[in-house]
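Following up on my earlier thread - several people asked me to post the actual chain instead of describing it. Fair enough. Here it is, all 165 residues.
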Amino acid sequence: MKKIISNASPLIALSNIGQLELLKELFQKIIIPKAVYQEVVQEGKNRPGAVEVKKAVNKWIEVKEVKNSDEVKTLRALLDYGEAEVIVLAQEIKTDLLILDNREPRLFAKHLGFQLIGTIGVLILAYEKGFLKNPIEKIFELREKGFYISDRLLREIVKQLQNYE
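Reply from S.P.:
Thanks for posting it. Predicted structure:
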């Protein structure tokens, strides 16, 4: 089974549009570091994702502790706590795919040679695999709920998805 690690942002964003289960359908299981669990479930108590992620833990979401806390401290100069733990954990367990949205951790992870996908990529992949009927609708819903997508990127995504039809 592939090892997939997610940061907080995709969990929150997908929960916000009622699509967290797509991760289960696409990947069967995902791993999150403890810092991501704390950010989504404990610190985000009354926000999207808290209840959904808590329910999925020990079913199809596994919470793992990062061993190399010194490396996490070093990365904290560049990244937030969850992002730093995602990258260190990815190195520790030799992950197959990282689910990250923010630019800095994506660039850093790419530089280290990791495969990446973001929230939008998850929606497109779910559409390609037949798990989602209308990804454009969900992408617009994400945007309406505060998920940042530039106009340029939105046009590219719509154009790409229209080519599938």
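The beta strands are 4-6, 30-33, 61-64, 97-99, 116-117. That should answer part of your original question.
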